[in-house]
Design brief:
The chain is of the alpha+beta class and 483 residues long. The protein has helices at 14-26, 96-104, 120-126, 168-176, 189-207, 235-258, 271-283, 294-299, 306-314, 335-338, 357-371, 377-380, 386-413, and strands spanning 6-8, 54-58, 67-74, 77-85, 108-110, 113-115, 134-144, 150-167, 216-222, 225-231, 261-265, 323-327, 339-340, 345-346, 420-429, 435-440, 445-450, 459-466, 473-481. It has 13 helices and 19 strands. The two termini are 37 Å apart.
């Protein structure tokens, strides 16, 4: 599932704090971790790969660092060495900590900060790939052809050390010629990241896939209230995401060939969902020609433009139906069942074990397959129930995300009840009281709309009637179509 990140780029307004506190109580989400025992890990017993000059690339201030990379040329191709936190080594299967992690499932993100999957002493401490710290990791070796195709992959446990904690902006500035990176960073990092990232994007286009890198939503204080802004996705973020996707595809290939493990799946988008997105594009004044398919349209967008960024966030709706498919138990998955439609390939979640439970299991399956050793019982016994566990966790994360967005949209619209806005009805629901969803043009928010004979796809005027923790509500000003 694509993750929408929403935060208040200001001191936390009282209304947001109150709304988020109430939302956590409603969803039974605890911000405190119970007292649990964290296992000790002696990484010195692992193969020593601390000579590899890994670096991390993350948002500013990040402390839960799942991945570190080192890129190099290998003959006429490339080698990606990708270290991923081995947080599972710190969690004894069946322990109180393990049960708590299963109950949480994923890290939750809101405007007032994150609620981590693991205790912060792990997620931001001993399991995080922090600069200058020795850490246990799953180390992937991804051997690429000259055109960026995956030639061979392999993963092992390793003892690693990151040389530098970089931000997307730092690396982007270095690429654009406006900045320099610390001297301990490999001199060819930026060049190789750009080269490999672009090659992987070309391959994604060729196979019919599309990546949805959602821009971060920010609430900023203005002289007249609050304003919704977006932080554009940089080229470096897209290239970095391609390395993660490459690893997930390599893991899925390993597990599918062995018919053991767990895949991330997504059925093809439904026509009605694509039609709905076309209405969203119309509402935001973004031309989408009838003969242009969804992947091509998404690639044409510029997340630095507010309307385009708003559309990309709405496009996350196409990820409905995403699930997990456990492999094994005498069953095999054909290509249709096991494919991820957006990626246009088999795919697995393995690159974010600090923030997502399922990754811990898929990583261990892949390591055991490469080592040609037995897969531990704690993994095989958990695989059948993991889809249910992750579905519950993702549903709660979606509810939390939606509640956060409602709180911030309410902050933006507070005091504007009665005002008239322009918007487009994007769908209509049946029921005793006619209602639907409207995409308001400015500010770019999706909200509930009430009224008779709601004209789907038409540019109309709507009146704000209510702002609540459940989101803003509008009514159709009938007979007043916008021009």
């Amino acid at each position: 599932m694509a993750q929408r990140i929403v935060r208040a780029n200001v001191a936390q307004p009282r209304e947001v704090v109150t709304a988020m506190t109430a939302l956590r109580e409603k969803l039974s989400i605890s911000t405190d971790y119970p007292d649990v025992t964290v296992e000790d890990v002696d990484a010195s017993l692992l193969p020593d790969r601390r000579d590899i000059p890994f670096v991390t690339i993350d948002p500013p201030g990040a402390s839960d660092l799942d991945q570190a990379m080192y890129l190099s040329r290998e003959g006429d191709g490339y080698l990606v060495q990708y270290a991923i936190s081995a947080v599972g080594l710190f969690v004894r299967p069946g322990s109180d900590l393990d049960r708590e992690v299963h109950a949480r499932g994923v890290t939750l993100y809101g405007p007032d900060g994150s609620i981590p999957l693991h205790p912060r002493e792990l997620s931001a401490g001993s399991a995080s790939l922090l600069e200058g710290e020795d850490r246990p990791a799953y180390l992937w070796y991804l051997h690429l052809d000259p055109d960026g195709g995956l030639r061979h992959s392999w993963v092992e446990f390793a003892h690693v050390r990151s040389r530098a904690q970089l931000t997307y902006e730092q690396v982007q500035d270095a690429h654009d010629g406006g900045g320099t990176l610390p001297e301990q960073v490999p001199a060819d990092l930026v060049e190789l990241l750009a080269t490999i990232g672009r090659l992987r994007i070309e391959r994604e286009i060729a196979r019919g896939g599309v990546s949805l890198d959602l821009p971060e939503q920010l609430i900023e204080k203005t002289d007249v209230g609050y304003h919704l802004a977006f932080r554009a996705v940089t080229d470096v973020e897209e290239w970095n995401a391609q390395i993660s996707l490459l690893t997930g595809m390599a893991a899925a290939r390993l597990m599918k060939n062995a018919n053991v493990g767990i895949l991330r799946t997504l059925p093809p988008a439904r026509d009605k969902d694509l039609d709905r997105l076309r209405q969203v594009a119309a509402a935001l004044d973004i031309p989408w020609q009838a003969d242009v398919d969804y992947p091509s349209f998404v690639r044409s967008l510029d997340s630095s433009r507010a309307a385009h960024a708003a559309f990309l966030n709405e496009a996350a709706s196409l990820f409905r139906g995403a699930s997990y498919l456990p492999l094994g138990a005498g069953e095999s998955a054909d290509d249709v069942v096991s494919a991820h439609a957006a990626i246009a390939s088999v795919y697995a979640h393995v690159t974010a074990p600090l923030r997502r439970l399922v990754d811990r299991y898929a990583l261990e399956v892949c390591r055991c397959l490469c080592a040609q050793g037995p897969i531990p019982a704690w993994v095989t016994e958990a695989l059948p129930d993991l889809p249910k566990t992750m579905t519950k966790a993702n549903q709660r994360a979606s509810a939390y995300e939606r509640g956060a967005i409602n709180a911030l949209e309410g902050l933006i619209l507070a005091g504007r009840e009665g005002e008239i806005f322009r918007g487009v009805v994007i769908d209509v629901s049946d029921g005793e009281r006619p209602r639907g969803s409207v995409m308001v043009r400015d500010p770019a928010v999706e909200a509930t709309i009430h009224g008779e004979d709601l004209p789907v796809g038409h540019d109309i005027r709507v009146r704000l009637v209510k702002v609540s923790p459940d989101g803003p509500e509008f009514e159709y000003v009938k007979g007043k179509h916008a021009r």
